[in-house]
Structure formats: C-alpha cells, structure tokens
C-alpha cells in the first residue's frame, strides 16, 4: 500500500500511464511519458524535475551531534563544514554496509541525514550516552531534485539566493518561489543539479512555479526509470541493485562492505572509533572479496549473436538491476563476479555495466566476459574494465 | 606555397570529414579543404541571426551509421541526439492526425479515422520493419561491380542473396513491390484514410522531383525507414546544437588523430599528372600535394569541375552529365519570439515532434503539379521541427527556432523574375501557407532565412540544389551511384576517389560514403 507524496496532486495528472512504483511506502512515478527517453534527454540537455520526497530524513542536534554522526559514518564528518554536504555510507560492526546517503551540516551541532531505509532506531541505539536529539523529519519536508544543464538558470529565476556562489555539495537556506527552502547542489544524476526541500504545505506551489517556468528551460518532470539510467552513467551505486542493506540480508554471502562497493575513498581508518572500523581495518589488511568496477561491453559481438537469429541488435533501453554472471573466459568455466546494473547509454552510445568482480580481475583495461541471454541462449560477451563515472560532464562541478 | 600530405579531402561536409577521420586514424597525414568559413557542408549549424542558431540545411538524423558513431567515438566528441517521437499533421477541417511512436496511443488516434487503419498500422510497421532489416545490409557494402565482379563482389552478392532468402516469401514480395510502386499506391494497400496516407506518403517524395503518385517513390519511403537510433529502427532524432554539431564531432574526432582541417579554402581544381591525381590547386593559387585526393563533392563537381574531361572516359562523362539532381526542395529557417500556436493541436507537447503540412494526398500531388514545369508550389508541403523545445543551446530562453523543409521548389523558376524575387515569392508562399495552420505565425517571426534550390547550389555547392547530391531513385542507387562501374569510390583517375553522398549509400547524414571510401582507399594501400 503506497501513499501519495505532497506533490501528488500535481504529479498525478502528469503521469500519463499511471505507472507508479512503491518507493519507501510512497507513490513514485516511474515514467511520466510513454517513452522515458524524453525525460532522460531532458536531464542531459535541459532539466528534469524529480519528486524525491520519499527519502528518509533525520535531524541530529545537540552538543554530541558530530560525535554521533562520526560514530555511525565511515566518512569523517569533522571535515564537513557548515553549509557543506557529504555523501557517506554507514555499516554494522562487521563492516557490512547498512545504507548510504547524504549528510548535511546545517549548523555546528546540527546535521541532517538522508537515507533509503528507516534508520531511526539504529541512530538511537548508537546514541546511548550522547547528548543528542534525533528526530525523524522525513515527512516534515517535501523534496524535489532539479537536475540538468539548465537547472541553475531555472532555479535562479525562482530564488533570491545567488546560485553562482553555491558550489558542488554545498547547501544554503533561501526562498524558492516564495517558500522557505533548503537548497543543496546535490543529486543522483552526475549532472549539474539541485535538490530543494520545502515544507509539505508549500509543495504544490513549488511544483507549480517550476512547471510555470519549465518550458523556458527545456524542463520535463522525470521518473524513476530515468533516474536509474542517470545514476548508472554517473557510476553511483543503488541499494537493491548493486547492494542490499545488511539489515535486509539473512546470510553473510549477501552482505557487502563499503570497500567492496568502491567507496574506499571515503573511509578514514585513522580516526577515532566508528561502527565497523575494526572489521574494515581487518579487511583493508587482508583484502576484500570483491571490487566494484565499470564495464563496457563490445556490442559488435552482441550484434553478431543477434544476427545468428536473423535479428537486429537489441539494447537494454531501461536499466537492468539483477545479478548477471561474469566469467574469466568465454566458455564460462571460471566465474569471477556479477554485473549488478546495466544499460545502453544514449549519451555515451555504449553498453555500460556496474559490476562486482574478484579484485585480481578489476584492473582497468582487463578483458572479461559477461553473460547475455539472447533468445533464451546464454552467450559470453567480451567487456573491458573502464573507469567510473562513465559520464562526468565538467558542468557537474563547474 | 606547397605542402605534402598523404591524403587531401576536397570538401568539409560530413562525409569528407568522416573520410578524413578514418584515414587519420589509420595514421595518414590528412588535409581537409572546405570552401566555406564553416565546416559541415549541408550538415551545418550557423548563427545567422544573433542569439539564434539554425540547422541551416539538414535538420534531423537517423541514417548515421552506428559503426561510425562507435569507431570515431562521436559521443565523446559531442554527438547527442534527441529522438523525435510524434508526428502532427493538421488538416484543413480543423482536425489533425497524430502519429505517436507508442503503438497503443497511435492505434487509438488512428481509430478516430478508421478502426481498420488503426489495426493495419501494426501490420504496416511490421512489414516496413522487415523490409528495412532486409535492405539495410546494403548500406554497409561496397557496391559490387556487376558486369565485372571481383572475388569480393561475388562474396558480397552471395551474402546479400542469402540474407534475402532468409526473409520469407511475403517480405520478398512486398520488397519487390515497393521497388516499383508509387508511395501512395503502396500505402493504399494498407490504409483507407486519406490523411493517414498523406502523412506517411510524404517520406516517399523528400528530395525527389516526383509526386506521391509517381512510380518509384515507394522505395524512398523505405529509405527513410532504414535509419536507426541506438539500435531502434526507423527512429529519427535531432542533434543538440543543430546538425552542424555532428560535423563538428566528426571533425574533432579527425583532429584528435592529427588531421588538419582548413575552412575558407576553396579548391579550384585537382592537379592530374599522367592520369594520376597528385594534388589540388586552391582558388587563391596555393597548391597542396598528396598521394591520394578525395572529393567529398557531388558527382558533377567531382568529375566535371574539379578535373578535366580529357582525363575521363567518354561513357563516364555521359553518365555523370545524365545523373539527375533537379533539386526539389527549399528551406526556410525562422527565429521566433514565442512558440507557434496550432489551434488544431490538442496536446502542446506535440510541438516537440515533427509537424507536417500535408492535409491530404491531393494537396501533396497538387504541390508537385505546381512545380513540375519549374517554379514552386503555391501551397507547399512542409516538414517542420522546432529544436528549441528540447534544446536550450539554439535560442535565448523562451525564444525558438523553427526549421521548415519545403517541397516543391524547382531550380528554375521561369516567369518569377530575378533570383531575389524568386526567393521572396517562395518565402511568402511558405509563410502564407503555414499561417493557415498557425494564425500567430507572422506576429512571432523575428528573422527569416529563405533558401531556394538555387541558393543551395550557390552557397553549399549542391548541384541544382539537390539535398542528396543526386536523386535517390533506384536507377541512381547502389552500383548505379553515381555511374555503373564507378560505384566503388574509385575514379578512372588514379589516386582520385569520391566520398560524398553522390556515392553509395547516398544522401542524408549517414557518414556511409565517407567511411566506405576511406576503407577502400586504405585497402588499395594508399
């Protein structure tokens, strides 16, 4: 059973096919138009407007706010200045990932954390003895993500905040379309973009204001199918596709560490205690089971496979997010990992995959083989290990 | 001034640039010489009116070969194509037909006119898809020499024969019919509704001086179905920043491998010594020498302007002189203060797709009749696209550019006064006709650029203004393009090659001739 978000009176009529998904208990549009490609292209050439209200949000305030946030995050938040946003992950004490999200530092003793899954009790458990107040503010805010090359100009036309001064992963208070808002230069698309948090009562007027000026900035409302394509191109992992939260798994074989997910850059082991630190130290010293890598498939081989059936080459136009076997060899004798998300990238004209392979095969340029099913036959398609993000336009940070 | 290169390409159109990019990637020292101040030939974007960028000539893309996109890494160099997925055709009675890419939406829309046609649509698409898949491999072959086939030619013919055999008899029969029928007769076998036949039939006349009821036009329809975007057959799209950005992407790919590209460098002639091309002379007297000279120009320029006829066999000269151009279309580009208002358009998002002024089959045929003895259609057919609905880079926020492809317009317009007067009258016919469907049009025009076939010849070196560098009729395709025996990019002059759309696989932004020519040159060891 899913509930409407505060934008639903507006998004409802726009969602032509009434194609809704359940996102954390809320109705989330998968596509607004019959062909999601328009929404995708809007984000890469104009802008896309996403309702991201279903994200869980927690406010952490008090003298020990930083202590708590640093205790749960694998990333050192003492380096996060007021008005800055950090992308971070958090683990259990076995060093296995719980969730990832953005953490806003709104004041010296005030953080706001976004999460994909409910996290309140876990924060409370970790706050024992600390002078903090933890509040679930998930439903106190409605949120949109405005993402794409024209997003800055468009948002600027609606706010008094000087957006040219708002750098990548920074946030500020301001008014948007007359409503008090938290504006952050963040997103899940790897493009120039912003997220705007407002009170639910202001949600409809914010949406209306954005739609009002949207035509001038080649903006379209966009849904989850498009968001999934964009985040893969940006090399951003997704819960449920690329990993499961340790809280959702029954067996260790299903659990993953932040090292194994390519998040080693955010882990600082040489600081005080944080949940999972000792396990991560052990993993760092003894090696990980997996590395997360980007793959680029050789579509000329795939084309030949389809030709065997007198069929033209077919691409995955929407992202897949299931486990696909990866082998060291074409005959599929040596299994070395799995693809976890994949897609045909319209902007790159490449078939790209986020994959998890044994570390010895993760070197850039390595040739490995990924399974593709064609007409219910299994084939091995050669793929190269490539750098992520797959798509990284300079405007993202400019 | 002299300088030596491995290869010189005459003409910086998209095929010349493609040929240069492939040769440069193979390690050749390449020079491209373009007469205009800007690259792209007819695939060009220009800021004609301050703040507004026009795709001056060609404006949509579909046939661009996927292997070229891949091999030249065009996405890395800026290729970015926005799909067009609706076609809107307003009618004279105030209604309008919408062709949606979404099959279910299209069926519902068509059933307003004819429930039978709505069901036939699925069958029609299936047949066109199968035929396009059947014929598509031809695009990638070097045309075989039928009268004197080499071992490779025999292999090509065998491979293609096997491919055709695999089609099944129904597709083969349809394929045989589409080669000879008129587009309207062909469509009448599927659809009973006039506006549906008109909106589909227009693809059969584009770029040819033939009407929807002229035999041979059905094939041109098929030609338009052979395109693909990201593997999706029959899909059309528009490049961000206009089609010139495709040319620029190819040019950047070529430059990244060392190709040198010069603009404002018109070539006067190819220097031929003892039956071999050895260099080019520019109009300013500069000379450049190379082992290989490649012309990206149309056949008349390639064979009749750049070289002397004494260096060519008489039968080729004759064939080239008889090669049909007879440009049939013009182009009007508008800068607009606001979006146009089609009262018959119920869903404004259709402004982001194609809009066709083709209210009936008779309308299209009359437009042809008006121009068949010269002149232009008083009420012409138009294919309209407004790139700025999706693309923020071509006009200031809130403003728009409108690309109007207009047919028919003849190269000669007897009784219409001077060329300037002809252009004026032609532009007026376009704006007046379109105003019947867009009442606010005249109020929102900020700037107007009008190009007749004659203008296309003067500015872009397209003989008689033919946008395909020679008509795309069956007698001028594959091993006939541009002349029997000389369809494999070679010429009778040693080391002189052709790589423009006047060679196989023909016109449109395909990059096919450029690629195949480069591969032939490399195969010949040049």
Tell me about this structure.
The complex is a heterodimer of chains A (398) and B (526). Chain A is of the alpha+beta class and 398 residues long. Chain A is 20% helix and 31% strand. Chain A contains 9 helices and 19 strands. In chain A, the strands form 4 sheets. Chain A has a 6-stranded mixed sheet with strand order 10-11-12-9-3-13, with helices on both faces. The longest helix of chain A is centred in the middle third of the chain and has 12 residues, at 203-214. Among the domains of chain B are: 4-43 and 63-78 and 241-324 and 468-523, FAD/NAD(P)-binding domain (3-Layer(bba) Sandwich); 100-233, no CATH class. The mean pLDDT of chain B is 94. Chain B has helices spanning 14-25, 66-71, 103-111, 115-135, 137-140, 151-165, 169-180, 183-188, 194-201, 217-225, 244-255, 299-305, 314-322, 361-371, 419-435, 441-444, 453-460, 512-523; strands at 4-10, 30-33, 45-49, 52-55, 81-84, 86-90, 96-100, 228-229, 232-233, 236-239, 260-262, 267-273, 276-282, 287-295, 329-336, 354-357, 376-385, 400-409, 445-451, 496-498.
What is the radius of gyration of chain A? 21 Å
Please name the CATH topology of the largest domain in chain A.
Answer: Gyrase A, domain 2
> What profile does the largest beta sheet of chain A have?
6 strands, mixed
CATH structural class of the domain at 4-43 and 63-78 and 241-324 and 468-523 in chain B: Alpha Beta
Would you list the SSEs of chain A in sequence order as H and E? Answer: HEEHEEHEEEHEEHEEEHEHHEHEEEEE
* Proportion of strand residues of chain A: 25-35%
Shape label of chain A: globular
User: In total, how many domains does the architecture of chain A comprise?
Assistant: 3
Helix content of chain A: 10-25%
Q: Architecture of the domain at 4-43 and 63-78 and 241-324 and 468-523 in chain B, according to CATH?
A: 3-Layer(bba) Sandwich
The total of helices of chain B stands at 18
As an assembly, this protein is heterodimer
Give the uncertain stretches of chain A in residue-range form. none
Tell me, what is the CATH class of the largest domain in chain A?
A: Alpha Beta
